[in-house]
Amino acid sequence: MTQAHNTEHHGPAFTAYMVVFGALSIFTAISFVANFAERHGYLTVGMGFAIILAVAVVKAVLVGTYFMHLIVDWGKLYYFIFPTFILGAMFIVVLLPDIVLGWPHVGQVPSPPVGSSGAHD
Q: H helices of the chain, where?
């Protein structure tokens, strides 16, 4: 008595992974070329930053959708991402008073560390 195996495959095929790998390689090369061009004066610092940032965002989306299988489980993503954004916003709001009140004000001289008297024996 043999059982039929379920050969149903969820997710992209092997060729899709290879295409994404090729795209990631090309985008990495673009980042290196943009960095080289910026260092040698062919691009401005802002333009090099914009190119490298755009390439990084595209690479992150490709990795997330294909290698992390979000393309298959896109419907479940909302259950994870929305609470994360809500908790992140709450974290910022809760810590904002500490950040603002702990920031040194203009003209304020920081106090010396505790235990240092200023005179050495």
A: 14-39, 45-62, 74-102
Of 76, 51, 61, nearest to 24 (Cα)? 61
Same domain, 40 and 64: yes
Q: pLDDT of the chain along its 121 residues, tens only?
A: 455 555 565 667 889 889 999 999 999 999 999 999 999 999 999 999 999 999 999 999 999 888 887 777 777 777 888 888 899 999 999 988 887 777 766 666 666 777 756 555 5
* Whether 17 and 64 share a structural domain: yes
Single pTM value for the model: 0.58
* Residue carrying the six token digits 């920081």: 110
34 domain residue, yes or no: yes
Q: Which two tokens stand for residue 64?
A: 């997330």
CB 43 within 8 A of CB 32: no
Q: What is the end-to-end Cα distance of the chain in Å, rounded?
A: 91
Task: State the total domains in the chain.
Answer: 2
Domain of residue 52 covers 11-70
